[in-house]
Amino acid sequence: STAADILKEGELEKRSDNLLQFWKRKTCVLTADSLNIYPDTQKRSKAKELKLQSIKKVDCVERTGKFVYFTIVTTDNKEIDFRCSGEENCWNAVITMALIDYQNRKAIQDFKTRQDNESASPGQQERRMARAP
C-alpha cells in the first residue's frame, strides 16, 4: 500500500494553542505517513502536516461523555490535544495503529539498510560513498 492511501478521513477537534484553549473543528486525513490537519471542512486551505516520524506516541486517552480525548506527543515533546466523538473506530485507535505500522516499516527498512551496509565489501562501500549526494 502506498503512503497516499487514506486510512481515515473526517472531523477531529483540536485544542487551540492560545491561552483560551478552546476546541476548533478540523478536517483530518490520516495516511500511512502523516496526519494532515485542515483548518476548514472543505479542505480549501493548506493542511498542517504532522508526519508520523515526528510522533512519539498517542497518550492519555480518556472517554468523557460523548467525547474521547487524547494527546499526540511529538518527538520534540510537544503535546497536541484532540477530541473526537467516541464512535467505534475512533481517531486515537486508528492513529495508534498507523504509528505502530509506520514504526515497524521503518525498523524493517533500517534493518535492511544495516544488512546491506554490513554485507558490502570495503571496496563497494567506498564506491557507494562516492555515489552518495
What does this structure look like?
The chain has 133 residues and is of the alpha+beta class. It has 2 helices and 7 strands, in the order βββββββαα. The protein has a 7-stranded antiparallel β-sheet with strand order 4-3-2-1-7-6-5, covered by helices on one side. β5 and β6 form a beta hairpin. The mean pLDDT is 87. GO terms for molecular function: phosphatidylinositol phosphate binding. It is a peripheral membrane protein. It is found in: Cytoplasm; Membrane. Keywords: Cytoplasm, Membrane. Belongs to the PHLDA2 family.
Which key phrases capture this entry?
40% strand; 133 residues; 29% helix; alpha+beta
Rg from alpha-carbon coordinates: 19 Å
Helical stretch count? 2
Widest sheet: strand ordering: 4-3-2-1-7-6-5
Helix content: 25-40%
* Quaternary organisation: single chain
- Tell me the total number of β-strands: 7
Largest sheet: 7 strands, antiparallel
Dominant shape: elongated
List the secondary-structure elements in sequence, H or E. Answer: EEEEEEEHH
User: First CA to last CA: what distance?
Assistant: 28 Å
